[in-house]
Design brief:
The protein is mainly alpha-helical. It has 6 helices and 2 strands, in the order αααβαααβ. The chain has one domain. This is RDD domain-containing protein.
């Protein structure tokens, strides 16, 4: 007499649904059987961590060079704007120049830092700005926030002094306040 083969028992399907209009069965939350939830993994290829933090002298030199380059670019582009609006003059002319001043500042700094991680002055001084989490460039909007905070801090007396000095005692990334706003750090290029 032969014994019929035994097949493994599979779990039953979902419990039967209740009367019409009753809530349907939902899978419970959690990981369930199988592999555990993944933990922290180091960044993959193309996400090399920076070799070190940029020293404070290089950061200061980069900012000074950047402001000089930006002033030159601003005045070269503002002269035609001033000639164009000089015929009318008055408050609208001042408004246009102030808007162009802020726009050119944000575009020079935010676009360069957001896209490439550095501006011309930062490249000369060997400094790169990256996100703390990924060591990648910030992206445009995060860089806009970083530079907008820098501008705001520059016009407020106490904050304007604290912002650049903050990196002298901040640990572990030596971040200025505008770096903290954008979750960024300055590293060696």
């Amino acid at each position: 007499m032969s014994i019929p083969p035994q097949y493994p028992q599979y779990p039953a399907g979902p419990p039967p649904s209740g009367p019409p209009g009753a809530p349907q069965f939902q899978q419970p939350y959690g990981q369930g059987y199988g592999y555990p939830a993944p933990g922290w993994m180091p960044p993959g290829p193309g996400h090399a961590m920076p070799s070190g933090l940029a020293n404070l002298g290089a950061r200061l030199g980069a900012r000074v060079l950047d402001v000089i380059f930006w002033y030159i670019a601003y005045f070269v582009t503002a002269i035609p704007v001033m000639m164009w609006i000089d015929a009318d003059g008055g408050a609208p002319a001042v408004t246009v120049l102030v808007v162009w001043l802020v726009t050119s500042f944000v575009l020079y700094f935010a676009f360069s830092v957001g896209k490439f991680g550095s501006t011309l002055g930062k490249r000369i001084c060997g400094v790169r700005i990256v996100r703390c989490e990924t060591a990648q460039p910030l992206g445009f909007w995060r860089a806009v926030g970083r530079e907008a905070f820098w501008l705001l801090a520059a016009v407020l007396p106490v904050l304007g002094l604290l912002n650049p000095l903050w990196c002298c005692w901040d640990k572990p990334y030596q971040q200025c306040l505008h770096d903290k706003v954008a979750d960024s750090m300055a590293v060696v290029r």
